[in-house]
Amino acid sequence: MPSVRDRRALILDEAANLFARQGVAATTVREIADAVGILSGSLYHHFASKDEIVDAVVSGFLRDLRSRYDEVLQRESGAAERLRGLVLASLLTVADHPRATEIYQNDGHRLRASDGHAYVEQSVRAVRSAWVSVLEQGQADGTFRDDVPVKVVYPLLRDGLWQTARWFKPTRGYGHAQLAEDYLTLFLHGLERS
User: Fold this and answer.
1) What is the pLDDT of residue 57?
2) Do 169 and 88 have their domain in common?
3) What is the chain's alpha carbon radius of gyration, rounded to the nearest angstrom?
4) What is the pLDDT of residue 17?
5) 23 and 81 share one domain
6) What CATH number did the domain enclosing 21 receive?
7) Left (φ > 0), alpha (ψ -120 to 50) or beta: where does 190 sit?
8) Phi-psi region of 69 (alpha: psi -120 to 50; beta: other; left: phi over 0)
9) Residue 27, in any domain of the structure
10) Overall number of domains in the chain
């Protein structure tokens, strides 16, 4: 018989898969319980509500993302190094939390509007601040071009990184670090040959 901790982890895993595939609002407690192989009522021995399950999945992703961003901003000083660090930190966090990334991307607006998910709005602001400060630093010191507004560059960078949860599968010869370098090459230098 699985331990309470194992059962809780299984519930989170199955719920994350369902939330990512069909959305938080469309997923019922019964579907989560069925996926785990328990009765719906038994789910409440582990979580008080569906919202608590959502919180457990998404909060871990956001906590890891913010922690990695803070590390990059404390460790690196130049705009290019900071940007490289944020891209790699994002890719590694997406790799660690692929379903939570999809949930955040698909249902982030709903979660931000919900009273019980204030941490989501706080995290959105912190993440945005990290990216914007690095991009503005790079424009101010001449590292990055300044003819494209940061408000355009930031969501393009961010959303492209979140999408990797859906398609990127690292191999021994091409991992997250190489993807980060190629991603930056495209954003910093474009597709045209010089």
Assistant:
1) 92
2) yes
3) 19
4) 95
5) no
6) 1.10.10.60
7) left
8) alpha
9) yes
10) 2
Residue stretches of the chain with pLDDT short of 70: 1-5, 115-116, 193-194
- Terminal Cα-to-Cα distance of the chain (whole angstroms): 63
Dihedral sign of CA atoms 122, 60, 62, 104 in order: negative
pLDDT tens digits for range 68-102: 999 999 998 999 999 999 999 999 999 999 999 99
Largest CA distance in the chain: 63
**8-44 exposure pattern, b = at least 16 Cβ within 10 A, e = fewer:** bebbbebbbbbbbeeebeebebeebbebbebeeeebe
User: What local confidence, expressed as pLDDT, does residue 150 receive?
Assistant: 95
Same domain, 55 and 41: no
Domain range for 7: 1-47
**Tokens 């507004």, residue located:** 149
